[in-house]
Structure formats: C-alpha cells, structure tokens
C-alpha cells in the first residue's frame, strides 16, 4: 500500500469514528429533551438504542476500538432488558 493509500485509509477510519461519536452525541441530546419539550418515553429510548445496535453491532473490533465496542454492547444490553 502506497503512502497516499495509507493516509486515505486512516482518514476514512477517522471519519467513520467521528461519525459514530457525533451520532452518539446527537442521541444523548435527544435523550435530554425532545422537540416537544416532553420527557423522552420508553419507545423513543428503544428506537434510539435499536438504531445504534442495528447500525453498529459487530462493527467494532474489541481490540482496536474498545470504547466503541463497549458502548454498543451497553446499548444492546439495555435494549434487551427494556424488552423483557
């Protein structure tokens, strides 16, 4: 792999990582308040967690992206317990 390809590969990985954390941050903002100003209900929580799990489950290697992996695992565990 030449130098430019390595840079583009790293750049792409950084962009994907930034997209993930930006998405998580936006989810946190939705948990704080929703557009109508009401509390977030259980269905909204399930929808947001489900989207995270569906989008990122098995996406992160626990060795290379441990924090991301653990966060997705936490979302998955919470979602499974909410659905019981």
List the helices and strands and how they pair.
Elements (H helix, E strand, L loop, with lengths): L2 H30 L9 H15 L9 H17 L2
Output the structural class.
mainly alpha
Mean pLDDT: 80
How much of the sequence lies in strands comes to under 5%
Largest sheet: none
Order of helices and strands: HHH
Give the helix tally.
3
Work out the radius of gyration. 16 Å
Number of domains: 1
Low-confidence stretches: 1-11
CA distance, first residue to last residue:
48 Å
C-alpha geometry: flat
Number of strands: 0
- How much helical structure, as a percent, in the residues? over 70%
Report on the structure:
The chain is mainly alpha-helical and 84 residues long. It has one domain. Helices cover 74% and strands 0% of the residues. The protein has helices at 3-32, 42-56, 66-82. Helix 2 packs across helix 3. It is flat and about 40 Å long.
Provide a brief overview of the structure.
The chain has 84 residues and is mainly alpha-helical.
Keywords:
single chain; 84 residues; mainly alpha; 0% strand
């Amino acid at each position: 792999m030449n130098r430019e390809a390595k840079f583009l590969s790293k750049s792409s990985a950084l962009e994907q990582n930034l997209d993930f954390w930006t998405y998580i941050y936006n989810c946190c903002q939705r948990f704080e308040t929703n557009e109508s100003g009401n509390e977030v209900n259980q269905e909204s929580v399930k929808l947001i967690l489900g989207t995270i799990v569906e989008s990122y489950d098995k996406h992160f290697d626990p060795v290379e992206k441990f924090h991301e992996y653990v966060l997705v695992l936490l979302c998955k565990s919470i979602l499974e317990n909410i659905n019981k």
